[in-house]
Automatic annotation (TrEMBL), chain A:
<dbReference type="InterPro" id="IPR041101">
    <property type="entry name" value="Transp_inhibit"/>
</dbReference>
<dbReference type="GO" id="GO:0048527">
    <property type="term" value="P:lateral root development"/>
</dbReference>
<dbReference type="InterPro" id="IPR041567">
    <property type="entry name" value="COI1_F-box"/>
</dbReference>
<protein>
    <recommendedName>
        <fullName>F-box domain-containing protein</fullName>
    </recommendedName>
</protein>
<dbReference type="GO" id="GO:0009734">
    <property type="term" value="P:auxin-activated signaling pathway"/>
</dbReference>
<dbReference type="GO" id="GO:0071249">
    <property type="term" value="P:cellular response to nitrate"/>
</dbReference>
<dbReference type="Pfam" id="PF18511">
    <property type="entry name" value="F-box_5"/>
</dbReference>
<dbReference type="InterPro" id="IPR001611">
    <property type="entry name" value="Leu-rich_rpt"/>
</dbReference>
<keyword id="KW-0217">Developmental protein</keyword>
<dbReference type="Pfam" id="PF18791">
    <property type="entry name" value="Transp_inhibit"/>
</dbReference>
<dbReference type="Pfam" id="PF13516">
    <property type="entry name" value="LRR_6"/>
</dbReference>
<dbReference type="GO" id="GO:0010011">
    <property type="term" value="F:auxin binding"/>
</dbReference>
<dbReference type="GO" id="GO:0005634">
    <property type="term" value="C:nucleus"/>
</dbReference>
<comment type="pathway">
    <text>Protein modification; protein ubiquitination.</text>
</comment>
<dbReference type="GO" id="GO:0019005">
    <property type="term" value="C:SCF ubiquitin ligase complex"/>
</dbReference>
<dbReference type="GO" id="GO:0010152">
    <property type="term" value="P:pollen maturation"/>
</dbReference>
<dbReference type="GO" id="GO:0048443">
    <property type="term" value="P:stamen development"/>
</dbReference>
Length: 577, 250
């Protein structure tokens, strides 16, 4: 029952931004549902196959911003065929035909074509922001359409996409009248860049706050860019293979000194280490630093740089920084909230003393008490270290530990790491995302099910002993939304124990586990609201081989809840039961 | 799709037994599908083996038999498909850096190697260092491009076979081409409807096969299976048969 007119309620709803809160509001009563849906501007769809564009538009006619995610997370590691799906075209097409006033589109792990980008650029007069993360299927021609046709473009942010670079003149396609850019990120483009066009574009974009260039932008060009954009807040640096001569270095330093608003720094692939000191003057202002692509910069240079970054909140780095380097981070960066340490050498045959171990992790936890998110790749770990980390940092929201060698035990006691991870889930009551690794038995899942009450996403690899492990998780983690498992001995008993659980989750991924075709078929029968997809190894396999033996283990299973039934765009390597 | 999985991590150190006169007779070890064909010179070396034959390679299921047997050596992380869980974009960057580094180190060493030494060197390299080097392959008439791991191949014949399997065998996505070919495609000798071309570091498009294999893999940026009719512009680079003999890939 409403005591206020609808307009007042709508006004109140306007101040509620979180999509989860808005989802909750819409469940209160019919009236609120109606007011909410008609006023909703931003919609987030975590799985593009859970709903279809027509129903989306039907419910939210005033939509302005749409976020869509396509392929499952493990597609990042080449575990999902390229043609699996996640095509954005039907969405853009439907939005265009319904004349939705789309202003922002954010896509992750979707297949985007040049045609889609062209259609997007021509269909929405007020389009302002395009963010593509880990997408593929398009070329710089598609970018040219966006540049040429989106008159009010503010943001073009391309993160880690696979883009065919035709080295055309897409930067030239921004008309001279385009002066509204606030953010431009093309760091993932592999080809040459028209420097003159880029400089002209930057010069006429007084609101440009974020600029991330690709490798093809050399030092002197960067200097010129920074000179005409001293208002930059976020800079992604290109690459310079040669040591700069003193004059170039001086010019670069001067330009950097003018950028007093600079807070975020990234890029640095193929960079001569001696360029880094040019950035020393702005270290103390930095809140975000991403040197995870800077393979050329050795540990000692990194340490020299980071020790001045006293305000750093986010740090992405390579393990070449070493435990010693992490100790420096721990003592210098007291404001650190998020840390990611990536491996720089995958082979491990070279016994790399410089790489990171449990020592570095413990040091960080002791020094950086505000840390809440960590992604840590290392060669070894101990329970003792994890227990200490849990004690030091009970505020973890995201804890992802990847010990490079599968099944590796505590390197001192040779025991499993159950107790270590158990300590983490027990201490970190707000933990929402967890990735486990190393030698793990069913016990760690008992702990997770028991203590990880807020857990929403869990990634498991090479862990567990029996179905019981997976059951502990499914039964215990009430807020679980995404579960992804690979190479673990969980089978049909675990899969089928509580079919209704999957309705409360976005998706489940299981690859190289013990579930069989028969089990998956039974699941599909018992749960018609799920799409149960079997991804085959061999494209030509299709149904013929699978029909033969229900005891055959399924190589890759991906299931997700959906209100629109079986999708029509699955390739032949995918069988939907 | 599968080519990357099968050809990449597990196969690189095993590939080198093919087509080269190395002793030991390591059977050609090939992934499940889209794998290098066992035809031609390597036919007598071995059958099509699959990942199941190799307990140390591939998924845990296959590995279980090894670990249950007792003391199994720890698996190197680089031998397992899709592991470590690093995004492919980052992984490619990492590998390119390592490749560039080793290439630079080699240049600095500057030794002129004999053919045998070169062979051993390449073997060692594949065993120890660079694992994954995916480059894009597009084919005229096919909407979706593929990726192939160059470091999992040892020669042009290898690569051509992989591409052939990728685009012409059992592939419903290949518009209008499925089932039209019943014999090997011979992408390399100009006798078929298609030729294999590549874009090098300078951005020029060249016919594949003109330079030694190792030089090719350091300079290739991407591949394209082009209709022979369209490749006329590249004809100038196509050398005379006797010249080609001289430049046979090592």
């Amino acid at each position: 029952m409403n005591y206020f007119p609808d307009e007042v309620i709508e006004h109140i709803f306007d101040s509620i931004a979180s999509h989860r809160d808005r989802n909750s509001i819409s469940l209160v009563c019919k009236s609120w549902h109606k007011i909410e849906r008609c006023s909703r501007k931003k919609v987030f769809i975590g799985n593009c196959y859970a709903i279809d564009p027509e129903r989306l538009i039907g419910r939210f006619p005033c939509l302005k911003s749409l976020t869509l995610k396509g392929k499952p997370h493990f597609a990042d590691f080449n575990l999902v065929p390229h043609e699996w799906g996640g095509f954005v075209h039907p969405w853009i097409d439907a939005l265009a035909r319904a004349r939705v006033g789309l202003e922002e589109l954010r896509l992750k792990r979707m297949v985007v074509s040049d045609e889609s980008l062209e259609l997007l650029s021509r269909s929405f007069a007020n389009f302002k922001s395009l963010v593509l993360v880990s997408c593929e299927g398009f070329t710089t021609d598609g970018l040219a359409s966006i540049a040429a046709n989106c008159r009010h473009l503010r943001e073009l942010d391309l993160q880690e996409n696979e883009i065919d670079d035709h080295r055309g003149q897409w930067l030239n396609c921004f008309p001279d009248s385009c002066i509204t850019l606030t953010s431009l990120n093309f760091a993932c483009l592999k080809g040459e860049t028209n420097l003159a066009a880029l400089e002209r574009l930057v010069a006429r974009s007084p609101n440009l706050k974020s600029l991330k260039v690709n490798r093809a932008v050399p030092l002197d060009a960067l200097t010129r860019l920074m000179s005409c954009a001293p208002q930059l807040v976020d800079l992604g640096v290109g690459s310079y293979e040669n040591e700069p001569d003193p004059e170039s270095f001086a010019k670069l330093s001067a330009a950097i000194n003018k950028c007093t608003s600079l807070r975020c720094l990234s890029g640095f692939s193929e960079v001569a280490p001696r360029c880094l000191p040019a950035f020393y003057p702005i270290c103390q202002n930095l809140i975000s630093l991403n040197l995870s692509y800077a393979a050329e910069i050795q540990g000692n240079h990194l340490i020299k740089f980071i020790q001045f970054c006293k305000r750093l909140q986010r740090l992405w780095i390579l393990d070449s920084i070493g435990d010693k380097g992490l100790e420096v981070v721990a003592s210098a960066c007291k404001e650190l909230q998020e840390l990611r340490v990536f491996p720089s050498d995958l082979h491990g045959e070279e016994d790399n003393d410089a790489a990171v171990t449990e020592v570095g992790l413990v040091a960080i936890s002791a020094g950086c008490r505000k840390l809440h998110s960590i992604l840590y790749f290392c060669k070894q770990m101990t329970n003792a270290a994890l227990i200490t980390v849990a004690k030091n940092c009970p505020n973890f929201i995201r804890f992802r530990l990847c010990i490079l060698e599968p099944n590796k035990p505590d390197h001192i006691t040779s025991q499993s790491l159950d107790e270590g991870f158990g300590a983490i889930v027990q201490a970190c009551k707000g933990l929402r995302r967890l990735s486990v690794s190393g030698l793990l038995t069913d016990k760690v899942f008992l702990y997770i099910g028991m203590y990880a009450e807020q857990l929403e996403m869990l990634s498991i690899a090479f862990a567990g002993d029996t179905d019981q492990g997976m059951l502990y998780v499914l039964n215990g983690c009430k807020k679980l939304r995404k579960l992804e498992i690979r190479d673990s001995p969980f089978g049909n008993a675990a899969l089928l124990a509580d079919v209704e659980k999957y309705e409360t989750m976005r998706s489940l991924w299981m690859s190289s586990c013990d579930v069989t075709l028969g089990g998956c078929k039974r699941l599909a029968r018992d749960a018609p609201w799920l799409n149960v997809e079997i991804i085959n190894e061999n494209e030509s396999n299709g149904m013929e081989q699978n029909e033969e033996d229900e005891r055959e283990k399924v190589d890759r299973l991906y299931l997700y809840r959906t209100v629109v039934g079986t999708r029509k765009d699955a390739p032949s390597c995918v069988t939907i039961l | 799709m599968i080519t990357e999985l099968e050809m990449g991590k597990a196969e690189s150190e095993l590939e080198l037994g093919l087509g080269l006169s190395l002793g030991g007779g390591t059977a050609s070890k090939i992934g499940k599908s889209g794998g290098v064909g066992g035809s031609g010179a390597w036919g007598e070396r071995g059958r099509l083996l699959t990942a199941k034959d190799f307990p140390s390679v591939g998924s845990k299921r296959a590995a279980d038999s090894a670990s249950h047997a007792g003391a199994s050596p720890p698996r190197s992380s680089s031998q397992v498909v899709g592991w470590p869980p690093i995004g492919s974009h980052r992984m490619n960057s990492l590998v390119n850096n390592q490749a560039a580094k080793s290439a630079r180190e080699e240049e600095e060493a500057g030794k002129k190697k004999v053919k045998d030494d070169e062979t051993k060197d390449v073997t060692k390299k594949a065993n120890g260092k660079v694992q994954v080097g995916f480059i894009k392959v597009n084919m005229d008439g096919v909407a979706i491009g593929r990726k192939v791991d160059l470091n999992a191949h040892s020669s042009y014949e290898n690569l051509a076979q992989t591409l052939e399997d990728m685009f012409f065998r059992n592939n419903p996505g290949t518009i209008g081409l499925t089932g039209q070919f019943t014999k090997p495609l011979r992408l390399l000798d100009g006798s078929s409807e298609f030729v294999l071309t590549y874009e090098d570091k300078e951005g020029d498009w060249m016919l594949v096969g003109d330079v030694p294999w190792r030089m090719f893999i350091t300079s290739v940026k991407r591949l394209r299976v082009m209709k022979t009719s369209e490749a006329n512009g590249l004809a100038a680079r196509h050398q005379e048969p006797n010249e080609r003999q001289r430049n046979q890939p090592v």
